[in-house]
Amino acid sequence: MFKGILIEKDGDDYRAALKDIDEALLPEGDVTINVAYSTLNYKDALAITGKAPVVRRFPMIPGIDLAGTVETSDNPDYRVGDGVILNGWGVGETHWGGLAQKARVKGEWLVPLPGAFSPRQAMAIGTAGYTAMLCVLALERHGITPHSGDILVTGAAGGVGSIAIAMLARLGYRVVAVSGRTQEADYLKDLGAAEILDRAEFASPGKPLGKERWAGAIDVVGSHVLANVCATTRYGGTVAACGLAGGMDFPATVAPFILRGVTLAGVDSVMCPRPARLEAWARLARDLDPAVLDAISSGIGLGEVIASAQALLQGNIRGRLVVDVQG
After folding, report:
1. What is this structure's pTM?
2. For domain 127-266, which architecture applies?
């Protein structure tokens, strides 16, 4: 038996609870993992509360991230005792995820734990930090450098935003942070943001084109915020879009793209191919100061996950929530 968060649904009765789960019920996979840490992400909170149709199969253990050690393996790439990370691949949606003390998954979904990080540090990064790195790589692929100009980061006090700011600042970019939480200004400046803007400036319908301000941007919000970010991006700039915290709609015009040559680069972390994942984690090990992780993360136990999911959806969580599943 092992402990985990289990989501069950009977008709309209949708519930999540911390339960003792029989190991024989673990899904198919060629690697079994003793999970040390997981995380609580926005998608996990939606799954636990049932406020969006994230879970596709029931019962389900949520948790799109995990870090731990291999307990058994039929995969030639992994041996007993290896440290591993998993981000995405539908875990917590269609396959039992990381908010439990054990997991069984396909070895091809795993990434070796970088030597630069402990399992807890890897989860302080988690899908949010790995996604932030994919966004930085997207900007770089489109020729954006520290000399290009300011980089805008929306949802700045959240997990993706916090790590994006820390990495971009360390790489020499001037970062402008956008947040609806003005009380987090000191936190964002400590991460490396040079300027803080109120989200209200971007949240309402805007003009097809505005003053050219940013060489590039990382957006986790979508909707009017993304439309306004694109409309104010400089000629030849790139916007990496990776989230929809403000909505899935995109009420924009083609003007920024056909009149200013702006690139809108979509960033997917869930089904991202393995080579790109390995590159992202290698760059995180090189470009992210591990000391930052203490400032952007806080820890909870499995018993606190369900209450914390509500707080996360209400916008009351700063940075990353790391879950000690063994604690």
Report:
1. 0.93
2. 3-Layer(aba) Sandwich (3.40)
